[in-house]
Amino acid sequence: MRKVPLIDADIHALIVITNIINMWGKDDKIRTIANGIITSKNADGTWAIKERDYISEINTVYKWVDDNVRHTEDPYKKDVFEYPLKTLELKAADCDGYVILIGSLLQAIGYPIVVAMTSQDIIKTLSHVFLLVGCPPHNPPKKISGWIPIDAITNKPITWIPPYAWGIWRKV
Description:
Strand order of the largest sheet: 5-4-3-6
Radius of gyration: 16 Å
Number of domains: 1
Strand content: 5-15%
CATH topology: C8orf32 fold
CATH architecture: Roll
Number of helices: 5
Distance between the termini: 17 Å
Order of helices and strands: HHHEHEHEEEE
């Protein structure tokens, strides 16, 4: 990611988002929800997602959130950072709400998380966040560029990265 001039609000938002994920990624309710998402069984009693099929786990969490949370904007001229249980109650979130929810769910089942702040367009202002997920969770790639991107508001598959993906990032 390229270096850009940062404003205090960008740094503050990145810190708030990572702190929320770090706190809720250890929460028992979030861990129960995350485990419920990935532990379904087939009719024959076998696991729907095989153990240590990390890509399928990440994708299943992503798709579950996409199926259960609608993309909406924050209130006019106000940036809101909601806790994951509030997002699930509202069934709505903007990009940072998705990042907080998916990041918390994945962290609760063992995945290292990075929050990336980037531009949504060629204007080159930091206005969007997405996730990078370390996979395999017990030994993620040494370079962040090898982590799996998730941009939940796009309806694109995991591994898709925003075309203007430059900016700043912070490990959770």
